[in-house]
Amino acid sequence: MTRELKLEMTLIEGHAFVLIRVGDDGRLADRVLYQGVDTRFFERLWIGMEVDEMPRVTPMICGVCSATHHICSALATDKVRGIKPPETAQNIRAMINLGIHLNNQALHLTVMGLPDFLPPSEKKRSVFKLLAARPALAKTGMKLMELGHRVVAVFGGREVHPINAVPGGVARPPEEQQVKRLVEEFDKLESDLRVFRDEALKLLEESKEKVKKYPNGTKFMLAVVDEKGGFTPLEGKAVVIDEKGNVVKEFRAEDYQKVFEEKVFDYTYIKMPVLREYDYPDGGMKVGPLARLNIVKTYYDEEADELRDRVLEEWGRPAMLPLLYHYARVVETIATFHLIKRYLRELDFYSPPLREYTESVKGEGIAMIEAPRGTLIHHYKADEKGLTTYINVITPTTFNAVAMENDLTAYFRGKDVVSMDDREIYADAVAIVRPYDPCMACATHTITEKQYGKVLIVDKNLRVIREVVPR
C-alpha cells in the first residue's frame, strides 16, 4: 500500500503542498511531488482584451514582483505592435526591474530565507525571531527592501503594480527631485548594505553543515544574459548549462517553444517546463539567483563579482546545492544596489522621445527577461484589431517546480520517512523549497489563525491515516 505525506508550505507566496508518497516499508515509494493547489485563470481571462492594456493588467499576477511582469509585458506588447522603444524609455524600464530585484532579494532573505538558519531550538521561525536574534541583519534588510520599492515607485509610478511602461516606451520621466532624493538615499544606505552583507554571510557561514545537508537533484540551470554574457534587467539571450557547467542551449525568446515543453499533470495546476530532448523530470531546470550566479559572466559590479567567485570557489563550478540560493541573493542584493546607485547618476531618463507607437499590429510578441525569482516569459498574439487571441505566461516558479521535486526526491530517497519526527520532515522539506522563493497564487494568500504546515499520512484511497502538525 502506498501512503502519502502532505505538507502545507508556509513562508512562501501563496499556497502549495509537498506530497511524499511512501510504501509499506515507510520509505519513499516514488518521486516527491510539488503541488500547486490554486489557479487564477489569468491566461484565459485576458483573451479578447486590447493588447495595449496588457502591461497595465499583467502586474496583477503578483503582489511581490509585479514590476517584472510589467516590464516583460511591455516588451512583448512592443513586439506585437512591431515597435522599438527609445533608449530613454529602456533606461527607465531597466530601473523599474532593478528596483524590484533589490527589493525582492532583500525581502526573501530577511522575511523568508534567513529565519530558517536560526538555531533548531527556535521552533517558530519568522522575521520577528530574526529581528530578536540578529537585529542588525533584520533592520538593514528591511531598509533595503523599502529602498527597492522606492526605486519602483519613482520610475514605475507606484511601488506595487507599476503603470509607467506602455507599448513603445514609457508614459512619463521620473521627477528630477525624486531621483536626486534616491541618489542621497543610496549614498546614505551604503553602510547599511555592508552591515546586511556581513551579517547575512556570517549567519550562512555558521550554517555550512545545513547547506551541505541537502543535495542537488537537478541537472540543468537557465538564465537570461546580455550580449556580453552579463547580468541584465531587460532582454537578452537564454543560456542553459548542465551540472558540469557546460553550455547545452543558447536561444532567443522567439524560440522558447522549440526548446521547452510545458508538461501538464493531474496532481497540480502548475504547468512544468522541461527541456524537450530530456523530458520530465530529467529536463527540469533551476532558475533564479543561483542559476544567474553560475551563468552570468559579470554583474558589472566588482564587489558582487568577487563574492560570486568566492562562492563558486568554495562550493564548486557550478554551485548547485539548493540552499546556495541564499548566498546568491546576498550577491544580487549587492549587485543591484550598486547598479542602481551608478545608473541614477549615469543614465539618461529625460531626453525625448519617451515613446514610439503605431496603430498597426504585427500580430505576435514574445519577451523573456529575468525576474527576481528567475526567468519569465510573456507570449502574446493579437488580431488586426489589436485584441488578444493567445496568451502564455511562464513564471519562474513553473520552471523551478520540477527542480524542487528533483531536490526533494534526492534528499528523501532511501529514508524511512514514516519513522522520522514530524518536525524533522517538515523542517527538511521547507529548507529545500524556500530557497527557490516559490510564488504560487502570487498576490493571493491563505490566511488562517495558525499557519502551521500540515502533514497528512493517507492511504492509496486518500483516506487520512494520521494528521500531524509540527509545533
Spans where pLDDT lies below 50 across 5 or more residues: 441-455, 458-463
- H-E order: EEEHHHHHHEEHHEEEHEEEHHHEEEHHEE
Largest beta-sheet details? 5 strands, antiparallel
Approximately how much helix is present in the residues?
40-55%
The overall pLDDT average reads 89
Relative strand content: 15-25%
Number of β-strand runs = 16
Shape category = globular
How large is the radius of gyration? 22 Å
Model description:
This protein has about 475 residues and is α+β, with helices and mostly antiparallel strands. The chain has a domain at about 5-40 and about 405-470. The chain is about 40% helix and about 15% strand. The protein is built from 14 helices and 16 strands. Strands 3-2-1-15-16 form a five-stranded antiparallel beta sheet. The protein has a four-stranded mixed beta sheet with strand order 8-7-6-11. A hairpin with a 2-residue loop joins strand 12 (about 365-370) and strand 13 (about 375-380). Helix 4 (about 85-115) packs antiparallel against helix 6, helix 5 (about 125-135) crosses helix 6 and helix 11 (about 300-315) packs antiparallel against helix 12. The longest helix is centred in the middle third of the chain and has 30 residues, at about 175-205. It is globular and about 65 Å long. It starts with a strand and ends with a strand. Residues about 440-455 and about 460-465 have low confidence and may be disordered.
